Amino acid sequence: MWIDPASSPQQSWVVCGATARALAPAYALAAPVLTSLLWQLADVAAAAAPYARWAILWLFTHAANFPLQKFFQAQSKVWPVAAISGAALAVHAALTYGAVWRLGYGMRGATVAGNVSYWLVTAAQFTYMTRGGFHDAWKGFSAHAFQNLGAFVKLSLVSAVMICLEFWYYTTLLILVGLLKNAKLQLDIMSV
Q: Greater confidence, 116 or 144?
C-alpha cells in the first residue's frame, strides 16, 4: 500500500477531523458520560464537565496539529517545531496567568488560554509548512488527498490503536482515582 507523502497531511486532516467530530458529543455530554458510564462521583463530573465542553475546541486543534507534527518529523525538521513550541509556551504562560489570576476566570480561563496557545502553534506550524521550502514534500492542497483514502484510513486505524493505548492508560488511572474515597483531593494530587 503506497501513500503519497505530499497528500498525507491532507489525508490526516480528513481522518483526524472526522474523528474529532465523532468524539465531540462525548466532550459536550461529559457529566452524564462520567456519572452514568464511568461511575464517577457527581461532584467530580460537575467539575470536569465545563472543562470538557471548553476543551472541544482543543480536540479540533489537535486534529489539525497532529498531522503537522508528523509531517515535520518525517522531514526531520524538529528545531523549527521546537522554536515554535517554545514561543507558544511563553505566550501560553502569559495568557494563563492573565486569564486565571488577573481576570479570575479559573478553569474556563485556563482552557481558553490553552485553546488559544494551541491554535497559535498550529497556525505557526502550518505557515512554516506552506512557506518553509518543502517543495518536494508539500505541493499544496489538492483533490488527490481524497484518492486512496481507504488505504490511508486502514493505516490510520492501526496507528490510532497504538496512540489510544498510550493515552488510555493515563485516562484509566484518572478514572480509577476518581473512584477512591475523597476523589476530589486525589484528582487534585494527580493533576500536579
A: 116
